[in-house]
TrEMBL record:
Keywords: Acyltransferase, Cytoplasm, Fatty acid biosynthesis, Fatty acid metabolism, Lipid biosynthesis, Lipid metabolism, Multifunctional enzyme, Transferase. It holds the Pfam family ACP_syn_III. Residues 255-343 form the Beta-ketoacyl-[acyl-carrier-protein] synthase III C-terminal domain. InterPro entries: ACP_syn_III_C, ACP_syn_III_N, FabH, Thiolase-like. The active site is at C128, H270, N300. Residues 122-202 form the Beta-ketoacyl-[acyl-carrier-protein] synthase III N-terminal domain. Pathway: Lipid metabolism; fatty acid biosynthesis. This is Beta-ketoacyl-[acyl-carrier-protein] synthase III.
Length: 349
């Protein structure tokens, strides 16, 4: 949006037909506090070997007392803006499952802290698939002329909703944020995002949920039951659904982009756990050297997972200019998605 001479907001007018969404900046951040497997073993009935063999995780980053999702999102957003040539942002979209408060949304606070007062800013919730849902949302804002550039952030402080005594989830989830600057551009230029494939199936909402805290529990005029305030996941069925949905969405996205799976140079999947990542990549026959991963260092960071992975991979050069990249994610809802892009040359932050 832009301001006219009378101070009213007017839709962006393009001299050329620029309707593709192009990655123009990237940034990621994890809080400084680190929890190792040995730290968890000191309070849970588990071992370093059990955690590593089942999840692939060795360390994870957690927020310190008093820190919130907005702090993670602000830092990742700041870094993404710093890596972009043009930092004039027309909208801020925040994908998160752990907003600072149930009301209001967290995105306006983050936007204000970044100096983006007055621009539209809102949250979206698709759990671990949130970044891909946000990617489609940002593309819509750009295509409609609402914004020429969008700051899309994925941020989660999952340790605030995980039961610290639950071995099945406490060893997996962590905190972090990743962000991208997206601009209007041409479909044939580096950084252009291909068609975003999305799906959902609410019949399986019970597989990944926080039962308490919403209108259904509150309308019953009763306190939540034991553990209902915490994140819950049915691991075995979630595994099967994740592999099936991400594999199918990935094939659809690649086909929609006019690629084949053999064209994929880098595979950036939601870092759920190492076994899921391996199963999906094997199903798609992605070579081992083409699979990006940071799960051993940062764990499962929810909606932050993909943009944080992209930021870290770009920083260490495992993701470089020209790499044809396939993104895919799966989360509660159930919700899932996939998209393609050719990685661009980005300015140094």
């Amino acid at each position: 949006m832009t301001l006219d001479q009378g101070g009213s907001y007017m839709p962006v007018r393009y001299e050329e037909r620029e309707r593709a969404v192009v990655v123009a900046g990237v940034g990621g951040w994890v809080p400084p506090d680190v929890v190792t497997n040995d730290d968890l073993c000191a309070r849970l009935d588990t071992s370093d070997e059990w955690i590593r063999t089942r999840t692939g995780i060795r360390t994870r980053h957690v927020i310190s007392p008093g820190m919130a999702t907005s702090d993670l999102a602000f830092e990742a957003g700041r870094r993404a803006l710093g890596s972009a040539d043009d930092r004039e942002i027309g909208a801020v979209v925040l994908a998160t499952t752990t907003p600072d408060r149930p009301c209001p949304a967290t995105a306006p606070d983050v936007a204000a802290r970044l100096g983006l007062v007055g621009v539209p800013a809102f949250d979206i919730s698709a759990v671990c698939a949130g970044f891909l849902y946000g990617l489609a949302t940002a593309a819509g804002l750009i295509a409609s002329g609402t914004a020429r550039q969008v700051l899309l952030i994925g941020a989660d402080a999952f340790t605030t909703i995980v039961d610290p005594k639950d071995r099945s989830t406490a060893v997996i989830f962590a905190d972090g944020a990743g962000a991208v600057v997206l601009r209007a551009g041409r479909a044939d230029e580096p950084g252009a995002v291909g068609p975003v494939v999305l799906g959902s199936d609410g019949r399986f909402a019970h597989l990944i949920q926080v039962p308490a805290g919403g209108s259904r529990q509150r309308s019953r005029s009763r306190s939540c039951g034991p553990g209902e305030e915490f994140f819950q996941m049915e691991g075995r069925d979630t595994f099967r659904q994740a592999v099936e949905r991400m594999s199918a969405a990935s094939r659809h996205a690649v086909e929609s982009a006019g690629w084949s799976l053999e064209d994929v140079d880098r595979f950036a999947a939601h870092q759920a756990n190492a076994r899921i990542l391996e199963a999906v990549a094997d199903e798609l026959a992605i070579p081992a050297g083409h699979r990006l991963s940071n799960i051993s260092r940062v764990g499962n960071t929810g909606a932050a997972s993909i943009p944080l992975l992209l930021a870290q991979a770009a920083e260490d050069s495992s993701l470089a200019e020209g790499h044809r990249t396939l993104l895919t994610a799966f989360g509660g809802g159930l919700a899932w998605g996939a998209a393609t892009l050719t990685w661009p040359k980005l300015p140094t932050a």
